[in-house]
Design goal:
By secondary structure, the chain is an all-beta fold. The chain has 1 helix and 57 strands. The strands form 10 sheets. It has a 10-stranded mixed beta sheet. A 9-stranded parallel beta sheet has the order 1-3-5-7-12-14-16-18-20. Strands 21, 22, 23, 24, 25, 26, 27 and 28 form an 8-stranded antiparallel beta sheet that branches.
Amino acid sequence: MGNASTANAAGFQAENLEVLDVSNGGAGGLATCGFDVIALTDGMFQNIDFENFYGNPGIIVDGGKGVAQFFDFKNIYSWHTTTRIQTVRRVASLTVEGGEGNCQNSGATDVISGSYDLDFGYTRQVSGAGTVTPSGTSFTIATFTSGLGYLTQDYVGAPMVLPSGTYTIATVTGTGSGTFTTSAGTPGTVSWSISGQGSSGETTINTQSQNCQTGIATFNFGSTHITNKPSEQTIIYRPALSGGVSINGDNPAICNHIDLDDYEVTAAGTGVYIGPNCQNVNSRHQVGDGENGVDMVLDATSRQTMRIDAATRFSGWTTNIATISGNGTTATLTTVPNLSTNSGALCAKSGVLILIYGVTGATAFNGQWATTAGTGISCNDTTGVTTITFPSTVSGTGSVSSASCNSTGSCVRALSSVLSTSTQAGVLEQTGSQVTTDTTYQQMSSPPQSSYPTSVILGTANVNWDGDFFDVIYGQAGYGVLHQSDGPLVNYAGNNTQYDQPQPTVTNSEITCGTPVNPSSAPNVCQSSDDKGTHFSAAVNGTNFCLPALPDVGFPVGYSVHLIYAPASGNAVWQVIPPGQTSTPYPSAGACPGASGTTLQNTTAQVSINPGGSIWLKVNTAGTGWYYEGGTNTYIPPVPGNSVILTSDVVVPTTALGPGTADYIFVLPTPIPPNSKLHFECDGTTTQATSGAGIGIAIGAVANAPMNMEAHAVVAGGTSTNGTNGQSSGNITTATEVAVYTGATGTLNTQLPWELKGTLVTGATSPTSVQIGFFTVNASDAVTVKEGSSCRWTN
């Protein structure tokens, strides 16, 4: 309908039709389609079904040398068809309402390769800009060539109407001018511009596609509104190269003002892809149902003008790893085969970020990686195996577990991602909502903690908090995150071969996501700065916390983070380690990141948090090191967790006559953390059988010598002339028993008090225990340490 050389303004209507390609695709190409509409305006297609158009569209709307516009498509259906509706060159003002396109093959086992249910300028793209100068003097007027355009301004000069005949043109893009000679030998001049600087769009789409490689794909198709359920997969979940909505262009002036509103994409490899050279694309209330490979992938430049209001936090598919290895340059992993309907396939767009966790052996594979742009993710829809490659310096083969990904399994998760415009590799996880204009949040409208929005800072955009505990946006180079002033809570599920790190307030480019470096299971992490926030760990066997190297713009003066360690059982510790240092006794994968030099409390030594303990870490006033806020490295709660209390009297043997033979009644709770400064105290009462020289108190470090230990004691005398007596052990640097107090003369046959206090400084290897004992200085005088006497750590 219509022709290529004349723009027609004639109404057309077709309805209540079944259009069947009896050749099941025929020879392919443009010759086989249901309708080919060229340069018409004012038309309606209604209640039409297309079947068996394999490799071909049901309807082609072609702008020809002019423009095709003002068409309504209502209740258009397709079955076993590559494309329901396809546009070529300049097409505008369409309404697609109702109906459904289904692109599955006749065997109902997979989707038609290269199928696009609604293909608006995508597969037959026309350049949105450019000027060329043709060569030669031979031209083709109004003849389609290689999918790229017609002449839209034909001729200047005589003759004004060309005789019939064929005119060939050397170049069919852009604009230009030249001369021609007709078949009758009549000379003339011609100038032209190739139409279709994209299809300008101005279109509303409210329909559904099923089992297509891509549901809706557009190129330079601006001012378009997409809603409802543009795509779902029901045969193979997340098939190879599949996507729900793909927005693309080469000219931001044309790929402009596109709205995706109240929509859902189900089980596609990539739910929504926003490519380069588009602007002012808005996404509102996208439902992430957890079945897409990733919910959204964004070009970094296009994202800068994109407003996102997500209905749920964006997610990515998680599946078990079958194999993983690296050669020092590139790492490769494969997923477990899974051919069930909701399979393990993870066919997101190559370049997206992935999160690997639970790998043992070569544990450096654990963490976040950007897959290889263009080729990093490939899926075999027959076997159900996904192969993923990513740049990595890790060499070796990782050991994997087939346990559940919510337990101890070795798994990979795809992350909704922002791709670098230049490299098309992932640089940032897109967690959900983001703002680009002035926005005010009140308490009842604040986003849930799991989906705090990111913010692209353009011009003077501000975020105002009305009644919330939010106060600032941190960002640099146009990127940032909304920041909660009293900080997020991060539940770190690491173990004693992994480490966690705090997230910065800003970076030199784009904000990194707040995912722990090596999570052992699915993390619950707020995507925000950890400044003034809390990291909590309940790792029973202990874990590590690596401090970032300073100075760093992401960790300004005053930055602080709170650590709480509360395992359900055991006596392991949470190590806090300066940059470039290796944890003891829980070595992570090599030393902590960063060059050695940044200090913790003016040393490069680590400190430890005992069970039930907490610590505030803060950047110093010079911005060059870390210290403990409040001057302490651990907090150990009072009785009973860190105390030893006598529940009955203990009679010291009369053979206990000195430090080497003392009865070591008290052993302070273990393990004792290395590289720490600890305080202890003991107190209680004693009696002695007869008047004698008095009691003695000794202390000893077992197995490993302390860097330094000192204890001092005060003991009450038994008479008014022998009142309170005090003595000290002096500095102890060996693993031997040393006397703290040697009894003074006096009558001690009544129950009188004693008190001992001291400090312990440990090095890289700490004593296995510290014990306090009693002895008598007279073999005839037995000493009894009374019930209720106790010893404890106090710092």
